[in-house]
Design a protein that fits this description.
The complex is a heterodimer. Chain A has 14 helices and two strands. By secondary structure, chain A is an all-alpha fold. The chains are: A mainly alpha, B mainly alpha.
């Protein structure tokens, strides 16, 4: 029903535009010079047709959602009435540009509000659903409980029918995988950035930098497939050969592959901040007889440190929120362990497993996903705000 | 120079070389990871582009297919086509007699072969009563065996194919009756439970509709918001807030947008989940910050002299923006939009949240039909137990990566051809 209504309004607006423009041309022949270009009169009449029609559609959809005929009738009546009213007002004295531009300004301003509304929508929906979760499960249990088994029972009277919603093992698993990912991505990303910014010849740099960025362009589901079907069996096989028992959904495989995915986030942001360090600092250090590596370690790196910290924080936020790799390669059961060879689960994995499939909006199980989502959103938000602020301050320092 | 100093210098130069080598090694590790990733996917995916067929002489016995002679398509469609193929395959192995052996032999054929035969006869009913020569599709396991991917040293009970089945396949291959052919099905059919019949057209169509909705929403909204913030808005606290908000939104995990879509679009508005319309709306909210940031950068790059010239000859502010600034910024805006769309194409998690994850055989014909999307299809296939789905998944990844490369190439071309340096 939405599409026919929108199409009708568009057709109505086009008709009104044509009417208004024709009217303006006729008026200009009879009364002399118009105060605006003819197209603005078309736009003026089109607005007068489209806005009432849109309002009528929304009203009809709200008050009589079932009546398709009534909706169409209301839409056409309002649109045509508006168009003919506006057409009568088209005279040489009317400056149609002013109302049309005012409407355009309002439309542009409203578009910029969509971003705000998205944030408000995210916060509102997460808070609302998480609130309903915390009505069932106390927040202290969620934040400090050590047992996570959200499988609610089928029958009310069954033992343990409420499930256990202590999220500590889930948070710990997220932390473990993030740590593994960062211990891969931070050194490789940072050293690559230093090499590319300080040592590589321009032609090597021009070749390698886009290649590294390819890593960021590969969809995460591809990394997940790679982690689950290539890396995890390889890690497990290697462990068997040296006598280690490695779970087939080990944190090591998921975290390692996630680290590879994050390398370009670290390297390209660090590359930017390293190159932003003024050349005069390097020249001063080299002029005093320091070798290039000494210059990098003792002058460039400390100068770029705030920016690098910002880059690393952004990368951590990426890792915490990353979903597909862990859904495909990490475990489902919540183990409270710091052993990277065992399977752990993460916040994002739990959100996906709790919500894919049944979507009953009332069970604590479904609502738990929103509580986890709220925690995820807040953590990544704080990381992002700090990181963006650090990077921004740092930029200002050298500009 | 004293010896101590010389030794120190030597040490410092060694440290220099070491540091340089470590940096080079880091780049090498990153590039190796990329190569292994892409290499393993190409290696695993290429076999899925071919399938195996066996040449059969099918006797289209009228008494069997159409005993009434009515040639009614509905009756014809229900004839025992699989039985005809079975007999034709048995004709290659006259020594097979027991029922269980015959059943094992028939298992080598794909269930899709019967549909192919039915389609051929329905398209040309004159074939009934004759013997037609047909290349019948073999099952996924038979295909694996013919490629030599089934380990014959494994005990028979743990293998997907029995010793007898392997021997028959060998004999077919030896006699030149089994043949490898291009698997057009992979690109032209929807999803299926049978790996050899599963294709990505349905998922690709789902992705297409989803991206269309995303583009239709995020491009106009993003450009409008960017124009407002860059050209019209007063610089005050409110616009600062919008700016900070957009930058933060760009770094929010994609799964959170999925939760938003689930709670708001499905929960509060009651829209139908698993449709590209909702998926497109969620991805539009997700890509909007990217589009706005790219569009603002492109608009900012238009030199002020353009605006001053337009204003100087009497254009209004909006005329200046729409007649002069926007057209000049458009290549940059489009480049940013294409890159945003490429990111949306690869996005999976939000689509899982809103239910675009079902097993859907039909190819969606519009944004309201239930659909999956390419990355979701990859996720679903990666989860399937059949071994042949590994190759299918890798092939789907190759197709997805091809689309991404094409989109990025388009963006690069657009940038290099049309972007002006002032």
């Amino acid at each position: 029903m939405l599409f026919p209504a929108l199409a009708t309004i568009a057709a109505l607006a086009a008709l009104a535009f044509w009417l208004g423009r024709g009217r303006a041309l006729a008026v200009s022949l009879a009364e002399g010079r118009l105060r605006a270009r003819p197209n603005y009169y078309g736009g003026y009449v089109a607005l007068w047709a489209a806005l009432p029609a849109l309002a009528a559609t929304i009203a009809a959809a709200l008050f009589a959602p079932a009546a398709r005929g009534a909706l169409l009738a209301a839409l056409l009546a309002a649109g045509l009435a508006g168009a003919f009213f506006a057409r009568r007002r088209v005279t040489a004295a009317l400056n149609a540009r002013v109302p049309v531009e005012r409407a355009t300004r309002i439309a542009l301003g409203a578009s910029s509000l969509v971003a705000i509304l998205t944030t408000v929508g995210i916060i509102a929906s997460l808070l609302f659903e998480a609130w309903r979760f915390f009505e069932r499960v106390p927040m202290s249990e969620f934040l400090f409980g050590l047992q996570w088994s959200p499988q609610t029972a089928i029958r009310e009277d069954q033992v343990g029918s409420s499930g256990a919603f202590g999220a500590v093992p889930v948070f710990a698993g997220t932390l473990l995988i993030t740590l593994i990912a960062m211990s891969v991505a931070a050194p490789i990303g940072l050293l690559s950035a230093i090499y590319l910014a300080e040592y590589a010849r321009p032609r090597v740099r021009a070749l390698v930098k886009p290649l590294l960025e390819v890593l960021a362009g590969i969809p995460t589901v591809v990394y997940g497939f790679f982690a689950a079907l290539t890396v995890a069996p390889a890690v497990r096989g290697f462990g068997e050969r040296i006598g280690l028992d490695i779970a087939s959904e080990s944190a090591l495989a998921a975290g390692g592959v996630m680290g590879v995915m994050i390398i370009p986030f670290v390297s390209s942001l660090s590359d930017d901040v390293i190159r932003a360090v003024p050349q005069s600092l390097r020249e001063a250090s080299l002029g005093l007889g320091a070798t290039p590596s000494e210059t990098i370690r003792r002058v460039v790196f400390p100068a770029a440190l705030p920016g690098i910290v910002g880059a690393l924080l952004l990368a951590v936020s990426r890792a915490v929120g990353e979903t597909m790799i862990v859904v495909m390669a990490a475990g489902l059961a919540a183990n409270l362990t710091a052993n990277p060879l065992e399977a752990v689960t993460t916040v994002t994995v739990q959100i996906v497993t709790l919500l894919v499939g049944d979507q009953e909006f009332d069970s604590a199980k479904t609502l738990a996903a929103f509580a986890l989502g709220l925690a995820l959103f807040l953590v990544t938000l704080v990381l992002n705000v700090i990181a963006l602020e650090v990077v921004r301050r740092y930029r200002e320092q050298y500009e | 120079m004293s010896d101590a100093k010389r030794a120190l210098l030597k040490k410092r130069y060694a440290a220099e070389r070491r540091f340089r080598r470590v940096g080079l090694a880091a780049v090498g590790v990153a590039l190796t990871a990329l190569a292994v990733l892409l290499g393993s996917i190409v290696w695993q995916g290429v076999p899925a582009f071919t399938e195996h067929r066996v040449r059969l002489e099918v006797v289209l016995d009228e008494a069997e297919i159409d005993p009434d002679g009515s040639r009614d398509p509905e009756l014809l469609a229900e004839a025992n086509w699989a039985g005809l193929l079975k007999s034709a395959l048995q004709a290659h192995f006259p020594e097979v007699e027991s029922r269980s052996e015959k059943r094992e032999l028939a298992e080598l054929l794909s269930s899709g072969a019967a549909y192919d035969l039915a389609d051929r006869v329905l398209a040309n009913p004159k074939l009934i009563g004759t013997t037609t020569s047909l290349e019948a599709l073999l099952s996924d396991d038979a295909s694996l065996a013919l490629r030599g991917e089934i380990d014959r040293d494994v005990p028979e009970e743990e293998r997907v194919l029995s010793d007898a089945q392997l021997a028959w396949l060998d004999s077919l291959a030896e006699r030149g009756l089994a043949r490898e052919a291009f698997a057009a099905r992979l690109l032209t059919s929807g999803d299926s439970r049978e790996p050899e019949l599963a294709g990505i057209l349905g998922a690709a169509a789902g992705s297409f509709w989803t991206l269309l909705v995303t583009l239709a929403l995020s491009f106009p909204l993003g450009v409008a918001a960017a124009l407002y913030l860059e050209e019209l808005a007063p610089k005050n606290r409110w616009t600062d807030l919008i700016e900070v908000n957009i930058n933060n939104l760009a770094a929010v995990p994609s799964i959170v947008f999925g939760l938003l879509g689930l709670a708001v679009f499905l929960g509060w508005f009651g829209l139908q989940g698993s449709a590209p319309l909702v998926g497109g709306m969620v991805l539009a909210l997700m890509t909007l910050p990217t589009v706005i940031i790219a569009a603002r950068a492109a608009i900012r790059a238009v030199p002020p002299s353009i605006r001053e010239a337009a204003l100087g000859v009497g254009a209004s502010q909006l005329q200046t923006v729409f007649h002069h600034v926007l057209p000049l910024a458009l290549p940059g805006v489009l480049t940013g939009t294409i890159l945003g769309m490429a990111r949306a194409l690869g996005e999976t998690a939000p689509l899982l949240m809103i239910g675009m994850v079902a097993f859907i055989v039909d190819v969606p014909a519009g944004p309201l039909d239930p659909a999956s999307a390419l990355p979701v299809q990859i996720f679903l296939w990666a989860d399937s137990p059949e071994r042949a789905f590994v190759a299918r998944t890798s092939a789907a990844i190759l197709v997805l990566l091809t689309f991404l490369v094409l989109m990025n190439l388009a963006a690069v071309l657009l940038r290099s051809r049309f972007e002006r340096r002032w």
